């Protein structure tokens, strides 16, 4: 007589589906919201999220879902999550995943897949998702069995934090997701017990060497990059620059580490500093195109690079000292190591800081006429200057565009850490609305101010309706020159004025009317004197808003004109 005790045991077990196991794993990671566009392959995850108290936010395009997951990770420091269906649902999300990959943002994309039982049979929306995602993620895999579902989710989250953070991808076949298994046969991760801290304070000998270099440098400079915010190392960075009297420059998410007006806060004299410093410390920033691949640093300077990823240190340019570790922990250790050996060196740097401040002032005065210009169409410098004046300590600023955001990078100064968001080094247009969505959900107490180029807004702008639907107010500004102006400049530079308008000219779209049509607040501005009042009315409206500002199409940002690809 056969032994059917195991069958009896299974009958008495609590059965759980793959989708509900996904939700349990998300809950264990602390995920509070998933961003999604619905599809038949993934709906069991929704059902599980309802049971686990995880919000399901539905958007109009999967690119928006992926960008929102990226944005949520940046704002909260916790991994974001997007869930999309198979085939075009997953391919639509590729851009958002790629952007998170280059920006070192931890997020999990879950994609649907046809049933295992129909593998290679041509099932609906079947594509080799894992093959496509592998080059742009830290981890990409298929969930092979329902009992492994939660385990694979926790594995993906672990990989998000291996070295510098980044995205992971899981595809889950439909029959794996929908099937049910006895709960005791599934490994369900317990919150706080399935991955270790990856924080490292760096090699102690290297830390000691950097402390000594900083103590004795006559003209040091430090660049505080995105990893300062990623590691939540703001306090350590501020302590170092103040204790050691080091001028600081900030880029990416590192903007706002020091508040405007701080004596160590510098913005416009970076090229001068890097050409004249005797010690340059680069924190959490690769030597990529934004740094001229390291060639903009004085060849006579001692160069130190601190990064979470060992592969980034010394890439494209030799360094005198490289430290792999958590930016906050490394900087804290350096400050402590240097505290007893300053020997008055920090106080002697007053002349160096005064020299940089003079260079800073020269740059400001050079563009002052444009910052205050009353011209119409409006000069972009005037627009971004008005936005900078409008920001408060609670304003989280988002830049989404090409030329107009390049203008803003020279003028807009966030008042606090974590209050600047841009796409990052992939240069992806269309992140603005998804970032607004994520930022307002993650930090409803913050005012969100977003500047869009008209081309950038067009890519994901329909999800303005999602912001209206979820009642998420923000102040949006479209710098409208009816052009993809950053590309237009390059075409003019390479091919002449007679061919500058090929493939880059947009219609004169009244985006203020678009906002009102979808239930938001909208205004049009043609006179620079009206910018400030329009911004204040948008704030007071309590609605998602778009202020359509007509800007001069023949004004180009210096950063646009200096791009090496056009030379």
Automatic annotation (TrEMBL):
Key word Transmembrane present: no
Highest taxon, organism lineage: Bacteria
PROSITE patterns xref list: TPP_ENZYMES
Gene3D superfamilies: 3.40.50.970, TPP-binding domain (3.40.50.1220)
Domain annotation Thiamine pyrophosphate enzyme central: ranges: 207-332
Cofactor list: Mg(2+); thiamine diphosphate
Keyword annotations: Metal-binding, Thiamine pyrophosphate, Transferase
Record-level GO BP terms: isoleucine biosynthetic process; L-valine biosynthetic process
A single Gene Ontology CC term: acetolactate synthase complex
E.C. designation(s): 2.2.1.6
Domain Thiamine pyrophosphate enzyme TPP-binding: 400-549
Entry similarity comment: Belongs to the TPP enzyme family.
Protein name: Acetolactate synthase
């Amino acid at each position: 007589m056969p032994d059917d005790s195991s069958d009896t045991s299974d009958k008495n077990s609590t059965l759980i589906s793959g989708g509900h196991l996904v939700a349990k794993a998300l809950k264990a990671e602390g995920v509070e919201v998933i961003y999604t566009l619905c599809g038949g392959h993934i709906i069991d995850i929704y059902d599980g999220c309802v049971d686990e108290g995880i919000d399901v936010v539905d958007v109009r395009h999967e690119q928006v879902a992926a960008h929102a997951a990226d944005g949520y990770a940046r704002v909260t420091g916790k991994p974001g999550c997007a869930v999309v269906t198979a085939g075009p649902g997953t391919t639509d999300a590729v851009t958002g995943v790629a952007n998170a990959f280059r920006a070192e943002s931890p997020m999990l994309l879950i994609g649907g897949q046809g049933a295992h039982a129909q593998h290679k049979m041509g099932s609906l929306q079947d594509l080799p998702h894992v093959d496509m995602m592998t080059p742009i993620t830290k981890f990409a895999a298929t969930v092979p069995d329902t009992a492994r579902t939660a385990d694979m989710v926790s594995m993906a989250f672990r990989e998000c934090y291996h070295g510098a953070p980044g995205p992971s991808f899981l595809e889950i076949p439909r029959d794996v997701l929908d099937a049910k298994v006895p709960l005791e046969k599934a490994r369900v991760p317990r919150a706080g017990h399935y991955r270790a801290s990856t924080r490292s304070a760096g090699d102690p000998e290297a830390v000691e060497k950097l402390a000594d270099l900083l103590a004795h440098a006559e003209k040091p400079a430090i660049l505080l990059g995105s990893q300062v915010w990623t590691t939540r190392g703001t306090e350590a960075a501020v302590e170092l620059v103040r204790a050691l009297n080091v001028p600081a420059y900030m880029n990416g998410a590192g903007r706002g580490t020091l508040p405007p007006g701080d004596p160590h806060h510098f913005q416009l004299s970076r090229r001068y500093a890097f050409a004249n410093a005797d010690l340059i410390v680069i924190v959490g920033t690769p030597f990529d195109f934004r740094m001229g691949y390291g060639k903009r640093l004085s060849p006579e300077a001692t160069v130190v690079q601190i990064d979470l990823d060992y592969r980034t240190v010394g890439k494209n340019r030799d360094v005198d000292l490289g430290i792999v570790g958590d930016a906050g922990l490394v900087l804290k250790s350096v400050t402590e190591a240097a505290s007893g050996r300053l020997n008055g060196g920090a106080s002697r740097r007053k002349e160096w800081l005064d020299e940089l401040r003079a260079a800073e002032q020269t740059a400001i005065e050079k563009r002052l006429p444009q910052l205050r210009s009353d011209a119409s169409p409006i000069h972009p410098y005037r627009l971004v200057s008005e936005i900078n004046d409008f920001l408060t300590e609670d304003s989280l600023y988002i830049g989404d565009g090409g030329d107009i955001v390049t203008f803003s990078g020279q003028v807009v100064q966030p008042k606090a850490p974590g209050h600047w968001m841009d796409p990052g080094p992939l240069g992806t247009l269309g992140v603005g609305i998804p970032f607004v969505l994520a930022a307002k959900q993650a930090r409803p107490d913050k005012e969100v101010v977003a500047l869009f180029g008209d081309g950038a807004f067009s890519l994901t702008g329909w999800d303005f309706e999602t912001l209206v639907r979820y009642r998420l107010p923000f102040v949006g500004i479209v710098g409208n020159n009816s052009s993809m102006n950053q590309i237009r400049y390059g075409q003019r530079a390479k091919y002449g004025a007679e061919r500058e308008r090929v493939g880059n000219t947009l219609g004169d779209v009244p985006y203020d009317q678009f906002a009102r049509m979808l239930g938001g607040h909208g205004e049009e501005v043609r006179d620079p004197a009206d910018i400030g009042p329009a911004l204040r009315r948008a704030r007071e409206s309590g609605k998602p808003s778009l202020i359509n500002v007509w800007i001069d199409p023949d004004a180009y940002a210096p950063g646009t004109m200096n791009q090496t690809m056009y030379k």
